[in-house]
Amino acid sequence: MAIEVNGADVAAPDDPRVSLLDLLRDHLHLTGTKVGCNQGACGACTVLVDGARVLSCLTLAVQADGRTVTTIEGLDPHPLQAAFVAHDGLQCGYCTPGQICAAVAMLDEVRAGVPSYVTEDLSADPVALSREEIRERMSGNLCRCGAHNGIIDAIAEVAA
To answer: Last residue of a domain, which of 54, 74, 94?
Structure first.
């Protein structure tokens, strides 16, 4: 089997201990996916696996065998990228690829009617995407520069 990464088939690594993050960065040279905490706490390494957000530092590459992986390079161009720039949703930019990948999946979750911890009306279709709702859904992705307001504004614009 193979892993489809941004539309191209890639052989799964021979070593089953290789993380998806290391496969992407070190073997495929897709450096848009960042190494943050390497513990799953910051979200900098977020990619999409079959459309769902995944922390690539905590995922073994062999777990993606037969699946589709999309990195920030595979999203280009995406409306969220332009919105992040327009709303100053980045400063140093280190967390931005993970933020954008997470936001893409989060918007798909909202469209599918998946509630969050702060969703007030669980029967609402669609889920109302307030600033609080966006913050809760993006809480696994940290920005150390403090660009959170711009990130929320960018996501809200694209969601509308």
So the answer is: 74
